[in-house]
User: Fold this.
Amino acid sequence: MSKSAISVPGFGLSRPDGSSGSLRDAVLAGPGVRVQAARVGDPIRAVVTPEQIAAALRAAGHVDKQRATLSGAVTTVLILGLCLFSGQGSAGVITRLWPLLSVFNPVVVLCAPVCAVALSQARARLPVAVLRELFTRTASCVPGRVTTAGSLVFGLVVTATDGTVFDLAATAAIQARFATPTGGRFPQARAVTVIECGTRRVLAAQVDSCQVSEQVLWDRLVACLKPGTINLADRNFFSMHRWRTAAGTGAHLAWRVKNGHRSLPAKIIDTLPDGSDRVRLRESDAMLTRRRKTSSEPKAARLDDIVARMVEFTVTLTDRAGKTSTSRFRILTTLLDHNAYPAEQIAALYAERWQAELVYKSIKSTLRGGDLRLRGQSADLAEQEIWALLTVYNALVDHAVRAAVDLGIDPDEISFTTILHATRDHLIASAPCRACGHHRDSADLQAAITAAPRERRDRTRTGPRTKKQRETQHTRDVSYTITITESNLPRMT
Assistant:
């Protein structure tokens, strides 16, 4: 008997010849029917598309060993759903998303939602590489990069590098791979990312145990830097070898370095009219020794000298009561032309590095939720979840970018919390109509985001960073004053 093909968009059906069908047609056709999922109007595309899932499965080399309801594609989408609806029980998340999953596996139309245990077993069968590939492939697609307000400085796309940690479940399986920090209660995974400051989108990431340093993870990540961008990084990332490698990608750099006059292997060549300095970087004996040990090249030669530019400045913070505090910064940059790149503008640019901190706040506090640990009870399930969180975060940010492009505003003006709640509501309300299979249109989600109140960008505020500071201090409205200062570095003779 020949097999016909029927397409299933939710509960509605269409045949390859264009004629329509119904769920009843599919059931009456019997087990010989090959069912295909339609791709138009699927609400789940607000988070991920079937094409992206299929590409990730292929890249990871995952093939389902048997035809089952919880296929690799369905399992992947449900993992994303657990992150989107973080804090809610697995059974509830499955029930919410189940009517939307036929586009990934049409069999789900004919089945009741699976239980949480079945999903856990399916997650254990799914390689971590699938979620890692999904993040990597979706992260490379940046909507509206050129046209988004605030994305460019000096004609360059501004990126920032920083690290964070995630608390994991304290199970033996996780503790065997992820270390528990000294004095900590739970094992932690460390993530280092490169984000685009204008959109707060994560462009690339590396994940490992917290015992692996941010610098080591950055060394695995550096190749993601591209020409036409400028990268900002905090003071813990600098070394001669790391600076040379990052600059060799063609990207420009504006990295903070330590303030001590002996902490930077540099001497001033000359002082430029805007108060910045051209400096000669020479690899110190300590840096050379460390590099020889970490590179397994005990006789590695000293690196060649490098000419860079340093902008040294103070930032004075003044609150409404007139109380002030001053911090000193050194920014080392590859932007050597003081006419094209004035020192004060470089000093102001470095403040954009804080966007990386806001990204982590959105992922860990808003999306994941407060002090929640990740759900996974094994090392692989925990890592799956981290890649899924990054993927879902980017999908939500993409909605902000599209709305910002349409409105001609900076994506900072669109609340991440608003996007998260709007997307959840969109998926919950998008269960297909049993009569015709109709879904809510994706335009409804974009309209809800566009109509939401804008974030205030006219406020300049500061707040306590550490737990101890938060016990005694409060968020304050402040003003900032940048002053270019003279460096205390030695001069070349």
